[in-house]
Structures are given as structure tokens and as C-alpha cells.
Amino acid sequence: ADEGNLHGVKMDTKTEENDHVDQSTYFQRQFGALLQPGVNKFSLRMFGSHKGVAAEQARVKSFGVWIIHPYSDFRFYWDIVMLLLMMCNLVILPWGITFFEDQKTLPWISFNVISDTCFLVDLVLNFRTGVLEGDDQIILDPKVIRMRYLKTWFVVDFISSIPMDYIFLIVDLEAQMEASDVYRTARALRIVRFTKILSLLRLLRLSRFIRYIHQWEEIFHMTYDLASAVVRIVNLIGMMLLLCHWDGCMQFMVPMLQDFPPDCWVTKNNMVNSTWHLQYSYALFMAMSHMLCIGYGAQAPEGMTDVWLTIMSMIVGATCYAMFLGHAANLVQSIDASRRQYQDKYKQVEQYMSFHKLPADVRQRIHEYYEIRFQGKMFDEDSILGELSDPLKEEIVSFNCRGLVANMPLFANTDPHFVTVILTKLRFEVFQPNDFIIREGTLGRKMYFVQHGCVTVLPRGKKEIQLSDGAYFGEICLLTRGRRTASVRADTYCRLYSLSVDSFNEVLEEHPLMRRAFESVAVDRLDRVQGRDPLMSFSTD
């Protein structure tokens, strides 16, 4: 019985050990999955497909468990936390250092400890995070990552993450224990000032903040579109406001470190013992007055310290103003690039007309043609469509020509593939009133489909025929390879689509039934024009 009980105890122990191993293995797998690239639109755009993402996940595993992929969920959420923490640090640190003398309160120490700890953890994680290089390469080799980080931003990140002020206070506390009371009192004032200066080293975290914003722009491919321009403008405005905040804190900190000399603005305005709300408000007002170059605040600077602070503020403000104007100009240009291209093109047309001294009526017709043809915007449509896949190009062309298809009985009961192929071969053209689209006796090289407008067919010695939206003409010569049997004149502004003879024959070779249908209609039309009933010869059917 004892042996049975002992065997049962061993089995229970082994079961518990297996459960513990399975549970630890499960957590390892879950944590490892957080470090690998997830399946989302950003990773799919980077690696092409689910198979590409799976291959990248396998590549991460080959380098070890503790390699963090830049497209992983863990890095995504960690970067969000760090961005928020850096924003808080960049705003709160100079404000607290400048306007609060007691740096040993529990909230202030807790904030600094939490911030410093997170930044030290981030420092360690940077040694194990893959680096995005170029557009399609991610470095995951730990040795390469380590060497790149050590050679670039490690020193700045390390200095901004180490609590130098608290280390100095701890070292100085031991020295004060061995000193006299008078020495401790005199030294304490100097120590407070020096620790405030050391605390400013945390503002080097600004470089990390800028790098993180830039990395997110690369990951989200925010490079050329309108959203990226807006983001850059917002970043610039935020940076300008941050510099105004820093400048305002500096306007008060420098006189404070000098024990508020009589000629400084703080003493003249009796603000040495005022509340921090009043001190910060006046300091920010002075900083913004200098940076915007609209004045010197409440009064002009007199002391050399205030003079140099004013000069620095003006230089920083002028630089930010120039950068803002440049980014704003780029944003305005990127909002409507097609309209700007049209305006540039039309300026060349105007210079051409002026150079050749064209008559006023011709210039007016050219102006109206450009207005109707391009409608204030100019695109390189052939280049745009040529870069797309065939299905996508066919879908776009079908959408653009949906009005033509809806109005044309020829396409109503026809094979959809035939309609799509014809639409991809069409070329858009515009004609003004009284323009001759076709002249009788010329060789036929195109047929036309009327999208909008009215045209008149002028057979020699026959009654004129009116055609409008949904009609087509000119196919007879493409089938017979003969000359035009009638002239066609535009009565209004006409928006037509033309089909060249080569494209016409190419399409009909693929669809022989449609060739026979066109030939039957063309023979019937030709007979009617030359013989009995011209009104029926250019039917839209």
C-alpha cells in the first residue's frame, strides 16, 4: 500500500511538472509571437503576402527569442508608450525644474524614477530591435544592430536616460555628512543650482522623440502623399510650441540661477516671489514676443543676460518661421499638383501665342479648348494607366466611360469583354463648334463615339443628319479601307472618343462575330447614303 501511495505521489508530481512545462512553453510562444511581425496591412505591404510575413517570422526565430522585429505588436505598443512618455518629459521637465524649487517631493521623484526606468529599458531594447534599412531590408543580426546603435545614438540616449542629478545628490550627501553646518548651508544653494542644470540633460530625449516620429513615418510609408504633408506641418507647429515653452522656461531660469540681479526682467516686474502661474505666463509672453519678432515683452532688455536671451530667442524664432513657410508652401503645392501642372502648361501656351502674335479670336478659341479639354487639371493619364495592372486599368476605364456605355445602344446587348476591350483602346478628344471632325474624300483612320454634344453629317447632295449622345460614325472607311463618303461637323462643344484603325482591327480580330455585325451595318449605311434614305444611314442603332 505504501508503495502504491508513493507511486501515486510520483505520478501526481510528474503531472504537475508537465503542466508547469506546458504552461511555461505556452507563455514563451505567446511572448515570442509578440516579438515577431504581425499580419497587418503594414507588414503585408512590406513583405508582399502572408507567405512573405511567415518567412520573415521564421527569419526572426532563426536569430533567437529576444530579437524584436520593428513591425511586431510589442514594438508598436511600446513605441506608443514611449512617445507619450517623451512628450510628457519634454513639457514637464523644464517647467518643473524652472518654477519649483523643491525637487525632492514625492510626485516629482516618482515621475523622474518612472521616466528614467522606462528610458533605460528602451535603451536595452534598442540593442535587440531590428533596424529598417532602405525600403525592403530589415537588419536582424544582433551584432550588426549593436554596432550600429553604439556608433550612432547610444551616447545621447545613455546620457539622457541616466539620472545624473540624483547620482550627484547621493554623492554630495555623503560629503555633507562630514562637513560643518555653515559649509552645508552655503553648499546647498550651489548644489540646487547645479542639479537643475544636470536635470536639463534629460531634454536630450528630444532627439529620441524625433527619431521615433521619423521611424513611424517610414513604417507607415508616409512620404509623398497629402497626409504626410499635413503630419509634417503638425509636427512643425508642435515643435515650434515646444520651443516657445522651452524658451519661456529659459527666460526665467537664467535670472533665477543668477539670484535675480536688479536689472533682470523678473526683479523689475516684482515677480521674484510671485506664483508660478504668473511667472510662467510672463516668461512665455516674453519668449513668444521675441520669437515672433513683434516686441520685447513688457519692456526692452537692459542687462547683458536679457539681451543675449532676446537675441537667441529671435534667431530661433526666425529659423522656425522660415521652416514653417517652406513646409506650408510645399503643402499648398502638394494639395493640387494637377492644377499647378495645368497652370504651368497654360503659361507656356500663352507665351507661345504671344511669341507668334496669333489673332485674338484664335487665342480665345485656344483658351476655350484648354478649358473644355482639361477643365483646369492636367494628368499624364497614359502613364498612370500604363503603370496599373490590366484588371485595374479596365475597371477604371469602364468607370470613366460609364456614361458612354449607358447611352450607346451598340453596347447594350454586346459581350461585356468586347465592350471592355474597346473602351481600353479609346482616346478622348474635344472639338469646338464648327470644327470639321471628318472631311469628305480623306482617308479614314479613326471612328468616333459621341459621349456629349451634337454633330452634323454632311453627305454631298443629301440631307444633313444630326447625331448626338450615344451615336458613332466613321466605321465605314475602317472596314472598307476607302475614303470618307461624307463630312462631319461639330455643332456644339463635343466630347468624343476615337478608335484608331489599328486598334479597331485588333479588337475585331479577337471578336469575329462583332466584325460581321459592323460590316453588315456599314454596308447598309453605305447603300442608304449613296441611294435611298440618308436619314437612316447614320442611325445610332
Automatic annotation (TrEMBL):
Q: Which residues cross the membrane?
A: 76-97, 152-171, 226-246, 280-299, 311-332
Q: Name the CDD domains for this protein.
A: CAP_ED
> In its UniProt entry, what is this protein called?
Hyperpolarization activated cyclic nucleotide-gated potassium channel 3
Primary location recorded for the protein, binned into one broad class: membrane
Q: Where is the Cyclic nucleotide-binding domain?
A: 410-516
Write the lineage as a comma-separated list: Eukaryota, Metazoa, Chordata, Craniata, Vertebrata
Family listed: Belongs to the potassium channel HCN family.
Q: A Pfam family for this UniProt protein?
A: cNMP_binding
InterPro entries in UniProt: cNMP-bd_CS (IPR018488), cNMP-bd_dom (IPR000595), cNMP-bd_dom_sf (IPR018490), Ion_trans_dom (IPR005821), Ion_trans_N (IPR013621), K/Na_HCN_channel (IPR051413), K_chnl_volt-dep_EAG/ELK/ERG (IPR003938), RmlC-like_jellyroll (IPR014710)
Signal peptide start-end: none
Q: Which SUPFAM superfamilies does its entry note?
A: cAMP-binding domain-like, Voltage-gated potassium channels
